[in-house]
Design a protein that fits this description.
The chain has about 425 residues and is of the alpha+beta class. The protein is about 50% helix and about 15% strand. It has two domains: about 55-285, Ribonuclease H-like superfamily/Ribonuclease H (Nucleotidyltransferase, domain 5, 2-Layer Sandwich), CATH 3.30.420.10; about 290-425, Tetratricopeptide repeat domain (Serine Threonine Protein Phosphatase 5, Tetratricopeptide repeat). The chain is elongated, with a radius of gyration of 31 Å.
Length: about 425
């Protein structure tokens, strides 16, 4: 067998067997000048033989859509699809988003599969998955780009499907999915409606609710949370690093079977996102009356505080701070957040109790110095207990790091000493009996 180098020499000399190779070719176009995609113009339907696939006509040519239904009695980990379907754009969703989402009642869950993660003009979103709750279960509609020539058709079909009446729910979509769609829309001159929809990025709420655990910090990747929170274990799932290579092989003429695991991966991501969102909404509803246990109570309290649900926030902070089954780090963080919120609400005596709990739990010097300073201020200006205030100020000097902190506590000690001296003079009798 001739070596590759010999083969190249033969080609260069023009002696290679076979017809001459054109150095530059153009994709065929239709009457409107749009690229003709042979994979979606097959006379008998889509040449991409995937279950649930169909062709839709758009203003920019045909596009392939793949539909799938997770029926209501389908189990996704520890939960059934029917149990996750009670969602809507209400006050709980506003709390998770941290902003009003308008009056739209339709929720769509959105996730992309791309040819890379580095961004830039060369990265394509070859699969756009959309999920929605329906009376029959959870329906996914996936928009597939079978060749590079069909990107404009995909973007147009996605716009038609989404319309202007939905709230977008993603996982890290604010920094990835939506910017990718914005760039592709600009490149193809098809502005994407997904970029202008009210948007809940569940990654940020998930980090508050589930990053902390009894074992410490956990990963907040969607596949990790679906296992730890929903009890979902994927078997044989295609790895994210493998997805671009499968697509590249497919567009070079490979079988559509290469994309079947990618479509399944995307569908499961959508279902897990929807189930996590529904679970988070239920936590928000139930937590107002009965705080959850452990680390979830701390995360939920932070969401309540950000949303202005202050009574619920206080209850959850207290529940986490007083839970002796949790780690000292988690309890200390809860007590610290509780003390800060109580101080902001001018409930100073309760705030002082929370700061004392922070000191009892110990921890990093900067946290202890914050507690010392807060207690020194409280006892000096509100409690009138100058000796107690001085004790905390002295401890603050001993725990201080850096000259600035030491000088701050030292000035407080000097002021307290002057106040104590004046008090001693005022109580000293002027004559002896």
């Amino acid at each position: 067998m001739a070596s590759s180098l010999s083969r190249l020499r033969e080609i260069a000399r023009g002696s290679a067997a076979g017809p001459p190779t054109r150095e530059l070719t153009y994709a065929p176009v239709d009457d409107d000048g749009l690229p003709i995609d042979p994979r979606v113009t097959h006379p008998d339907g889509p040449a991409v033989s995937l279950e649930g696939a169909r062709v839709v006509e758009t203003a920019h040519g045909p596009s392939i859509i793949v539909e799938h239904l997770f029926e209501a009695d389908h189990s996704h980990g520890r939960v059934r699809v029917s149990a996750c379907g009670q969602v809507g754009n209400d006050e709980t969703l506003t709390l998770l988003a941290g902003r009003p989402l308008g009056e739209r009642s339709r929720l769509v869950y959105f996730d992309l599969e791309t040819t890379g993660l580095s961004g830039g003009a060369g990265m394509l979103a070859f699969l756009a998955g959309v999920g929605e709750w329906t009376p029959g279960g959870f329906r996914t509609t996936q928009f597939l780009m079978p060749s590079y020539a069909s990107e404009r058709a995909l973007l147009h079909a996605l716009n038609q499907y989404l319309g202007d009446d939905a709230v977008l729910v993603t996982y890290n979509g604010r920094t990835f999915d939506v910017p990718v769609m914005e760039l592709r829309g600009e490149m193809q001159r098809v502005p994407q409606v997904v970029c202008d929809m009210p948007h809940l990025d569940m990654l940020h709420a998930a980090r508050r609710l589930w990053r902390q655990s009894e074992e410490g910090e956990r990963s907040c990747r969607l596949t990790h949370l679906e296992e730890s929170v929903l009890g979902v274990g994927r078997v044989g799932d295609v790895g994210g690093f493998e997805i671009p290579a499968r697509y590249f092989q497919f567009v070079r003429g490979g079988s559509a079977d290469l994309l079947a695991p990618v479509l399944l991966h995307n569908r499961l991501d959508l279902l897990s996102l929807a189930a996590l969102t529904a679970h988070a909404q239920q936590l928000v509803r139930d937590g107002r009356d009965t705080p959850p246990a452990g680390a979830t109570a701390l995360g939920l309290a932070a969401l309540y505080e950000r949303g202005g649900w202050l009574d619920a926030a206080l209850a959850c902070y207290r529940a986490a701070a007083d839970d002796h089954w949790q780690t000292r780090d988690l309890r200390r963080a809860s007590a610290r957040a509780l003390a800060r919120l109580l101080r902001r609400l001018r409930r100073y005596e309760e705030a002082a109790e929370a700061w004392h709990l922070v000191l009892r739990l110990g921890g990093r010097p900067q946290v202890l110095r914050e507690a010392r300073e807060a207690l020194a201020i409280h006892h000096e200006h509100r409690g009138g207990q100058l000796e107690e205030a001085r004790r905390h100020a002295v401890a603050g000097v001993e725990e201080a790091i850096g000259r600035g902190e030491r000088e701050q506590f030292s000035r407080r000690i000097e002021r307290l000493d002057r106040k104590l001296a004046r008090g001693a003079v005022a109580t000293t009798p002027l004559w002896n009996d």
